[in-house]
Amino acid sequence: MIGRNDPCLCGSGKKYKKCCMNKHAITTDEVVKEEIELLLQSFYNAYPERPDLPPYIELVNGWKEQIQERFMTELIEAIALDEYFFDVAPTIWENYIEKQRQKVLRPKLQQLLNDWTKPARFVGKVVETAEHKMIAEHFKTGEHVTIALDTERPIPLHSNFYTFLLPNGEENNEQLAVSTLIFIPTDFDETLAKWEMPERWDASTTLQFFLHLIEAGFTGDEWTNFEANVLTKTIQFLNEQKIEAPQFVTIVEDYLAAKQPNARKDVAIAAGAIRFGVEQQLLDYETTWTELGAHFDVSPSSLAKYAKEIEQFYAKSQ
């Protein structure tokens, strides 16, 4: 138990009695979680260093030659950066972990760093979601893994993803996504099933993996074709009316990810989203529902149905 005169666990440098003693109880697990986040954040802030940049840039440029027409530059750089750290030049990560191991005193964090030497690639499907975590199934072995999440936004159930994982220090072998989750829509389930997983997966294999998806039409977008059409038509309407509403767009995105609605016409959901936005005063726009239905070529009853669904989702998320 922490004493009154001991350093506060929050890391402020103050004594416990002068800091968090009268605020709230801070558990060791909470402190470790914060330290884990700081370790990862510090790594990506500090690296790659200047001497490491030429080989990293060479890797990125080689990938751009083959996939830039389909992937945004930022996405190529993000995927290539983790390949560089964890496969092409792994000593960068290994040396960083060794330095941190010499600094930290907390036994739990020391043990965690011992298990962090080699982040593991993972390609899988989301089979279950819960608050701040999801359960994923490996796309070839069928292994189930629990992955901690640091986002409040919903994760689309049944979607596929690519990432690197590290142990999270939990007793149930919970994992942590050390890199960005690259979501692959369910439109590409058959494409993934046809991928022949190699015995050894390295950076060149990752490039071939994404080329395999690109050949089937993958552009790095996390949305299914249907969901992308809903968003495109919703945003197109906003642009036509010169309406800027980023919060509204985020709500529609979260609704699509969480509920994965199915409709005969994607414009019915787009029209319903606009009606929801007007009703909730998220959009500075006036119209009648008949006019709105005519604009999207859907019946007022159809757009009312999806406006109600989005409203119910929004109310529960508040």
Uncertain runs are none
Biggest sheet, open or closed, and with what strands and sense? Answer: 5 strands, mixed, barrel
Helix and strand pattern: HHHHHEEEEEEHHHHHHH
As a whole number of angstroms, the C-alpha radius of gyration is 23 Å
Oligomer state equals: single chain
Task: Please tell me what the overall shape is.
Answer: globular
Helix residue percentage: 40-55%
The beta-strand count equals 6
Beta-strand content bin:
5-15%
What class, by secondary structure content?
alpha+beta
Strand arrangement in the largest pleated sheet: 1-2-3-5-4
Average the pLDDT over all residues and give the rounded result: 91
Number of helices: 12
N→C terminal distance: 37 Å
Pfam families: SEC-C (PF02810)
Protein name: YecA family protein
InterPro entries: SEC_C_motif (IPR004027)
